[in-house]
Amino acid sequence: MSKFNNESDKNLYCAIKARCPIIWVRSYDEIQIINSITNFLGAEYIISVWDCLRGLYVTGENEPGETEPTYSDQVETQALNTMKTIYQQAFATHKSNTLLKVPIPFVWILPDFDEHLSPQIMRYLKEYSDLVAISTIIIISHKLPPVDLPVVRIDFPFPSSDDYNTEIKKICEQVPAAAEWNQAREDIATNRQEIIDILQSHQLCKISASSLVAMTLVKYKTVTPEYLKELVRLVV
């Protein structure tokens, strides 16, 4: 059985194995991308993730739980310090020419890092791309990369109708068997395609789509296109 969910997974794996310095992944589903990278790389790499709420952490080791809210100026400082850490490690390896002595390479996953591309961070990224490739930076964003940033770009497809349908089925399986929920099951079955169309029209990742359908079910005791649109209007 293949360890790749799709062709984009395979392309991303090949780019990492080729030690491309910076990979720009276009996707709305950052959690799925992080899970895919963790699954297909396994123990081959040390995988670190940065986000604006939890800072920088190594997957599987010291993943933090809930944290206090972070103010915008602190986030910018965090992002800059993270980029400094990545660059300094790569520069030290480049300067000492110890590439072959490093047993396990690094992958740095930076979701939504495009929101923090200050002039300083852009300079670090450009300098980093010219160093000996001991590590790979993966920036996950639904946006296009800056034209002056040297990256390998990999586009991940939006969830398909089948993907959304699978998420809806999972939710239906959790609906209580009591008679009071019969109308909910009937409404979902009758309006399934229209529900899927609404989710696709907003380009929602699978997790967001599943959450919205579940929230609609909890709030209204059923899922109809009208109720789903109302919740999407309030949340998205």
What distinguishing features does this structure have?
236 residues, alpha/beta, Rossmann fold, 2 domains, 6 strands, 50% helix, 14% strand, elongated
Structure in words:
The chain folds into 2 domains: about 5-155, Rossmann fold, CATH 3.40.50; about 160-235. Helix content is about 50%, strand content about 15%. It is built from 8 helices and 6 strands. A 6-stranded mixed beta sheet has the order 3-2-4-5-1-6, sandwiched between helices. A hairpin with a 3-residue loop joins β2 (about 45-50) and β3 (about 55-60). The model has no long low-confidence stretch (mean pLDDT about 85).
Q: Low-confidence parts, pLDDT < 50 over ≥5 residues? A: none
Give the CATH level 1 class of the largest domain: Alpha Beta
Amino-to-carboxy terminus distance? 36 Å
Number of beta-strand segments: 6
Distinct helical segment count: 8
Quaternary organisation: single chain
Helix and strand pattern: HEHEEHEHEEHHHH
- The radius of gyration is 21 Å
CATH topology of the largest domain: Rossmann fold
Number of domains: 2
Instruction: Quote the beta fraction.
Output: 5-15%
| Percent helix range | 40-55%
Give, in spatial order, the strands making up the sheet with the most strands.
Answer: 3-2-4-5-1-6
Main structural class: alpha/beta
**How does CATH name the architecture of the largest domain?**
3-Layer(aba) Sandwich
For the report, how would you describe the main beta sheet? 6 strands, mixed
Query: Overall 3D geometry?
Result: elongated
Average pLDDT rating: 86
